[in-house]
């Protein structure tokens, strides 16, 4: 076993490890992280995170402070989301857990069980719903969205409802395209059929309520039964906290869990976790107290302004176009035939900006996803200048090409039939490993992403799972 290290050695090692990460502050990472630009908010959040890191949310009677903060956060969210007095909520570890619990509550609340339930979702719904389906045995019925607006087709969703359907879903907004689905129409369908309607507002729920001229999507819409809303996104709190709100307590029972059928303490959980650190919850409460509702309104307007400015000016850059007008703080760009988004993403990273490439899907082209935080607002001119340079470089290089034979083979492969050796070979072809299966990450990801882009979704999943498996191996000691 490795000998113990001094505190300073540990700090040095942590700094060295973190040096390889994307920056979480400064507004230059336009996915994964959210930056208010408020140093004081960050400081009080980290202080609360540390202060309550050892607290355990498993038992609210042992740590009543956590229960008080959770109820307070749910109360603020209830007001923001225009909820009725009957609303209840639970804190979770993130948007995915909130979605998982919404699906579980819908399944169990309907009296159905594994393999005996379905949910109707637009193809733009977050992948967390597919994860929920996988975990809980709920069949996903996916409905194509409008090819121009990228919004859910409520009529087609209504036609897809079956006898075993327990839930229909809309986004406010969708992650990939940043548009709000027609929630009133979707919720009305759900109410008419006696179904639950979940609104995934994980990424928009702490922004949209503060903006003008936003289509209706909150609990003010009849038929909306639950909403997920993340605090570690646009509430600008440290990672690890989201909220799931239900219109009334009867709807929440399906994701509560209790077990007394063993000789230890009676396990009682409001979420998927049992033991859970109080740190993220306390940090969210502290940051929310410091910023306040009016402060969040100002931050939302700043981030929205940055999104609108980029959406207005980016299409003026030769080679770029706006895929769809944004409803919130997310912008989606694509290219003409002179270049590709994958090369632009590489070029932007070399200039100190992270933009997220998205693969082509269901007729929609590959695109660049931009999540605008309040901290990015003051750097919009700098960002656009870098984007213009990156796009010009991508146009000079020309679109990344994938060998036609390799592309055809990718389409024909059945991932279920591939062995570990086959995956080693495919990862090497993709540029993610050498011939012996050892990981070999390239500095530029455009060729890798271009190949993944032509691979069918199931093969892409299988390849990246194989890659993840090879990444997740113990360090030698």
From TrEMBL:
InterPro entries documented for this protein: GrpII_AminoAcid_Decarb, PyrdxlP-dep_de-COase, PyrdxlP-dep_Trfase, PyrdxlP-dep_Trfase_major, PyrdxlP-dep_Trfase_small
Cofactor: pyridoxal 5'-phosphate
Keyword match Lyase: yes
Residue positions where N6-(pyridoxal phosphate)lysine is found in the record: 233
Keyword entries, A-Z: Lyase, Pyridoxal phosphate
Source species, domain of life: Bacteria
SUPFAM superfamilies: PLP-dependent transferases
Gene Ontology MF: a single term: aromatic-L-amino-acid decarboxylase activity
GO annotation (BP), single: carboxylic acid metabolic process
Keyword Lyase: yes
Family of the protein in this entry: Belongs to the group II decarboxylase family. Sphingosine-1-phosphate lyase subfamily.
This protein's name: Pyridoxal-dependent decarboxylase
Organism for this UniProt entry: Phycicoccus elongatus Lp2
